Amino acid sequence: MTALPLETARTIIAAARAHAREAGLQPLTVVVLDAGGHVLAAEREDGASNRRFDIAFGKAHGAISMGLGSRALMARAENQPYFVAAVTSAVGGALIPVPGGVLVRDAEGALIGAVGITGDSSDNDEAAAVAAIEKAGLTAQTE
User: Which residues contact 111 (CB under 8 A, 6 or more apart)?
Assistant: First the structure.
């Protein structure tokens, strides 16, 4: 697989939402990007606040832009705050360096997209993304 198909993006969103319901999470917003950073699919659950799309997009877009999961970006921001601030500016502000932005890799290890989730704690957002990516038969990269 060299691309992330729309139907797979929809599967990831459904699996993330199912995981959230099973885990009792707050309402989520899920954004799935292709490897070029383009939105394939997005959903905001009832009760999610109005700017959650921007946050989920920033988590996923930051991960794609830097080739690192947003958990790794958080560590980088702690160690190199000026660099991450500069990159955030360079990518138009769409970089949120907290867990919840997860890279998606195919069976061969090729980068095919990213998932950004927000709505609960960052750790829970990331856990929902990982569970959803794996449910779709793909590999999640958080670091």
Answer: 35, 64, 67, 103, 104, 105
Note the pLDDT tens digit of each residue in 127-138.
999 999 999 999
Q: What tens digit of pLDDT does each residue of 12-35 get? A: 999 999 999 999 999 999 999 999
Is this prediction's pTM over 0.85? yes
Asked if 16 and 131 touch (Cβ cutoff 8 Å), the reply is: yes
Domain ranges of the chain: 6-138
Q: Which of 96, 99, 143 is nearest to 125 (CA)?
A: 99
**Which pLDDT score is estimated for 137?**
98
Residue 41, beta-bridge partner list: 32
Select from 3.30.830.10, 3.10.180.10, 2.60.40.10, 3.30.450.150 the CATH code of 6-138.
Answer: 3.30.450.150
